[in-house]
Amino acid sequence: MNALPWWIEWPVAVLLVTGGVLALAGALGLLRLQDFFDRLHPPALAITLGSWCVSLASVLYFSALESRPVLAAWLIPILLSITAPITSLLLARAARFRRRDADAARAPMVPGP
User: Fold this and answer.
1) Where does the sequence pass through the membrane (predicted)?
2) pTM of the prediction?
């Protein structure tokens, strides 16, 4: 196995640790935040940024290992960045409609004219 120079190993290690810390922060955000709407945005941002860090570490490592650009790892965070906002929007709309229907069911009946 070829040993990589330190100037490649250190950024890869820092990016992997940063990505892990961001993913952990996103998971803890899911546990700590109480309301669905509070949970919706911050953990998604932390986990998406964490996936970008891990992907960049993968690109650096395998590009240095193979002595050519290896950009296939960018596909995962690009697709995640495209689909995460759409998924968040659909989940927020569904939750809003469920809350509205639940509030309407609990509201007292108003007699008509």
Assistant:
1) 12-31, 43-65, 71-92
2) 0.76
Core vs surface per residue 5-38: b (16+ CB within 10 A) or e: eeeeeeebeebbebbeebbebbeebeeeeeeeee
Question: Residue 103, SS3?
Answer: helix
**One-character DSSP codes across 57-82:** HHHHHHHHHHTS---GGGHHHHHHHH
Task: Locate the domains of the chain by residue range.
Answer: 6-104
**C-alpha 85: how far from chain center:** 10
Q: Are 30 and 39 in contact (CB under 8 A)?
A: yes
- Return the ∠ at Cα 10 (arms to 29 and 74), rounded to 5°: 60
pLDDT digits (tens, 9 = 90+) for 51-81: 899 999 999 999 998 888 888 888 888 888 8
